[in-house]
Every structure is written in structure tokens, then in C-alpha cells.
Amino acid sequence: MVSKSDTESHSWLLQQWESEVNRTILKGQPSNMLLSWLLACFFAVVVGFESTWPPVVVWLGLMVVASALRMLIWGALKKGHLNLDSNKTAHRWLVLNTLITGVPWGAAGFYFWALHDTTISSFTIFILGGVTAGAIPLMAASRQIYAVFIITCLAPITVRFFIEPAFAGKFMGLVMSFYIFFMIRQAVRYRDVLWERFRLTSDKDKLIKDLGREIDDHRKTEDMLRAEKERAESASRAKTDFVATMSHEIRTPLNSLVGGVQLIRNEKVTPQLEEAVELLELSSQSLLSIVSDILDFSKIEDGKMEVEHVPFNPVRPIFEVHMLYKAEAEKRGLAFTLNVSPSIPRRLVGDPGRIRQILINLIGNALKFTHKGEISITADYDSAGKTWKIVCSDTGTGIAQEYKRLIFEPFRQADSSMSRKFGGSGLGLAICESLAKAMGGSISLSTELGMGSKFTLKLPAEVAKGSANEELSEDVSKSTETTQLSGRVLLFEDDPVSQRVMNMLLTREGLAILNASDGKAGLEILEREKVELVLMDLQMPGMDGFETTRRIRMLPEDSATSAEVIVIALTANTTTEIRQRCLEAGMEGFVSKPLKIEQLRPFLYEYLE
């Protein structure tokens, strides 16, 4: 059932269409009259030379009279003397104008074909066909106007055909009748196309107007929401600033705590003190893990979890994690095996830092829940599927099937007793899953209560271009206990406790340490003292680590230390943005806080051995 509003809308659209048709036909009148006169002159010249001139001159006079009348009507409509806004009135005048246009051409067909001259007859039919066909773009917007024009032009010659006694004449009359019918049909189709285009354009314009009205209606709401948005953005900025501050302020003392534990670990202590140190280390690592998980989860919630796409050796992060936890596993009486397939390409594109983060989380959990047996890491490559996978398995407590589906949800563990017994925020595996998805991969769990667990990390294997035969750096598997380092290191660190701990750790590695609490003091040291490596804290009072590094790269040639000295960033914030800023400032690498000497050793062996 058609509603009243739809009927009114359609009626309004038809009125607009009729007005548009009238204006379009009126607009085309000057070019139409000019073209008609050119064809008339051409026709008159040809026919005049082929027959006699008097009838041609009379026909041209008729064309002049018709053109004059057309000019009068066009001028009256153009100047508004005739009501163009009244669609029916304007349409009648345009029909009259068309009728006047067609009469001379109809007379030409009726008279000149009757001369029984083959050349003139053929030429007359040719001209009339061209005139009526060419009028479609100018007149077909109105079916009535075009029908009047073609019938006025061709009806006389068609009648002439039919009154001929010869069969050929009657046959030509039939052909001409079919031509008239065919051209009117074509004009109707052309008109329908124009109507559909007009309707769609009108619908589009109406939609734009409706949208404009809706926009106007929503502006008040937008004004109200804008203030709310600004408050939300302010809260988001405050949250971001708080996260960055918490990252720095909490990780800085943790850096001292973790470093101090590492120093005590290397000393011979009583069993009671060793147990206390172990508890201290476990507590600091637990606190660090919770802080890191909260920071990462905050990034995931804000949609700011970043992954890199850089060439890297896929075996390296696996070996690094194995080295990191091997001693801990052996201390607990667990076998920690590593099996890396030689089929894995030596250079892939991805984020080695995020892969390392996932493995650290998985192996950390395995150590937490495995009391006997073994832990293993297996890496393999699927050339057909262009993927590679890392499987972390253990012989630990396992997970009941009813809890398996919850294991990757944030703040969830197998059951509440796990959190009370082993600690943790319950965010680690949720973060691992988010990281795997962000890298275009997946992570899955296969487990059985009392039989252990197996986590499978599957990632796309995009082979990096160039350096395909690069071998794994020996720094990863090298024993750090058999090689003594030497060289001078300048440490930028404004926290005195962290500075003392770092000095003790680096001195144990055989290095001579110079200290700077701010950027200005460090630049002065570099101008007068030669050092081989700079460790740069990014957040210092006054001049931060980025600006200090840029100043280092502009050291004068007569400085004791070259402007090309190696600079490694020490930062609690390891986002992609911060890493990019480090590289842009001229740093060669970065190590996250709290610092473990195992993380720094690859750089030390690369640049100072």
C-alpha cells in the first residue's frame, strides 16, 4: 500500500522533472536552430544543383518563416514573457515550437521525393533520417515533443510512399512507418534513462538534504558530547602519563633490587642467606612480572599494543630465553631441553621482542607449575603453510578441561587457589594471546590434569630479503664465564642506588665505569675521557637521553671520545615509539629496565670483547 507521503513525493518529483525537461529543451534551442539551418542550406544547395532552384528557394523561405517563429517563441520563453514555471503552459509552447520546426522538413520530404530523381530522393531520405535521429538527444526528454517532431518530419513522405502505385512505394511506406515506430521507441528508452538518472540524482540530493537536517539536529548533541570527549581525552592522557610515570618510578627501584640480587648470587653465602636471597629474587621477579603485565594490558585495552616488522634471526630469541632460564631449571632439578629444527629460515620478518616476551611468560609459568620432570622448547617450520611454530611443553600440574577455556581470559587462572599458591596477576596468557594475534598468529593449549601442558605458538613465516645465510650469533650461546671483557663504559643514570648497582655489575664483567648523573656532565666527560660504550638512561633531569645522544653525535673532532661511540639506551618504556625515537636520536640499541646482566651481555660482547 502506497502512503500519502510517498504519493506526494512522487508528484513533486514529476513536477521537478517536467520543469527540468522544459528548461533542457529550451536551453538547446539555439544550437538546434543553428544545426537545422546548416542542414537546410546544405540540403538546398545539393537539391538546387540537381533539379531547379525556384522550389528550393520557396522551401528556404518556409524555413526562414519557421525559424523566425521559433526565435520569437524562444525569446519569449527565455525572457519570461511566457510562463516557464507553469509546466503545462511551457510544454505547449515547446510543442508548438517543435511543430513549426518539423513542418519545413516534412514539406521537403513530400515534395522533393516526388521529383522521381533517384539522387534527390535518396538524398532527401538520408537528410530526414539524420535530422530525426539527431534530434533524440535534444528532444527525447519529452516523449510528446519528439513524437510530434518525427511524425511532422516523416509522415508526409510516408503518405507519399503509400500513394505511389508501384509496390516499391508501398514497401518503402511500410519501412518508413517501422522506422518512425522504432525511433519513437528509442526515444522512449532514452527518456527513461534520463528519468532514472534524474530520479537517482534527486534521491541523492534529497538524501544529502536529509543528512544535512540530521546533522543540524545532532549538533546540539555533538556540542554536549564534545565536552565529554575532551574530558575523556584528558583522562586518557592522564592515564598514559600515569602509566609512563609508574613504569619509570617502579622499574627504577626494581632495577636496583634485581641488580643487587644478581650481585649477591655471585657471592658465597650461607645456606640461610642463600634462601633469603632466593626469596628476595622470586619476590622481585613476581613484582616485575605483575607491573609489566598491568602495563601491557593497559596498552591492549587502549588499542596501543604495538608489534614490529623487522628482519631477525628467529632462533635468537628462543636461545636467549633458554639461556635465561636454564640455570633456574637446573637448580630446581628440572631438565630444560631445546630442539630447533634446521629447516627454520635464518632470517624472518617479525617482532623478536614480542616473541621473546611470550616465551618468557610461557617458560616462567612452566617453571612455576612444574616440580619434577622436564620443560622443553621445540621450534619447527612448515614450508607448505609458510608458518613456523614454537612449542613450550612441561610435565607440570596440567589444567582440568573445565578450566582450559578460561585460561586465556584476563585476570583468570585455572582456579583461585592457583593465584593464592603461586601468585601472579592472571594477565600473562591473555597478553600472550593478544600479542600472537597482533603478529598474525595464534596460541593454543593442549593439557591434561596431572600430565602437564603444551602451549603452541604459531606465527607467519615471512622470509626476509637478503642475508638469508646469516648464522646465529655466537653471542647467544657463548659462555659468558670464559671470556673477560675490557673497556671503559660511561653510565648515564640519575638514580644513585641504580648507579651503584650498575657499577658493581659492570665491574664484575671486567669493565671500567665512568658515571654521569645528567646529560651535561656526561658530555663534559666524553670531551676529556675516551670511552668505548655509553649506557644511556632516557629520563634524566634537564637534558633527557634523546637530546644527550644527539649532542654526542655532534661532539667536536678533538674530543677524547668519538662522536660515533656506541650508545645503548636503558629504559623502562620499550614501546615501538620509544624504540623509534632511540634509533632516530642515534642509539644502536636498547635494554629494558629492570636490567638483567644477561640482557646486556650480548651488546657488551658485540662491542667490547
TrEMBL record:
Q: In what residue span(s) does the Histidine kinase domain sit? A: 245-463
Q: What stretches pass through the bilayer? A: 33-50, 56-73, 94-114, 120-138, 169-188
The 4-aspartylphosphate modification is found at D537
Q: Which SMART domains match?
A: HATPase_c, HisKA, REC
One Pfam family name is HATPase_c
Lineage, top-rank taxon, reads Bacteria
Gene3D superfamilies xrefs: 1.10.287.130, 3.40.50.2300, Histidine kinase-like ATPase, C-terminal domain
GO MF terms on file? ATP binding; phosphorelay sensor kinase activity
Residues in Response regulatory domain copies: 488-608
Its EC number is 2.7.13.3
What are the UniProt keywords, alphabetically? ATP-binding, Coiled coil, Membrane, Nucleotide-binding, Phosphoprotein, Transmembrane, Transmembrane helix, Two-component regulatory system
Question: Catalytic activity, per the record?
Answer: ATP + protein L-histidine = ADP + protein N-phospho-L-histidine
Coiled coil start-end: 208-235
Enzyme superclass (EC)? transferase
Q: Which PANTHER family does this entry report, sorted A to Z? A: HYBRID SIGNAL TRANSDUCTION HISTIDINE KINASE J
User: Under what name is this protein listed?
Assistant: histidine kinase
Task: Please give the organism.
Answer: Rubellicoccus peritrichatus
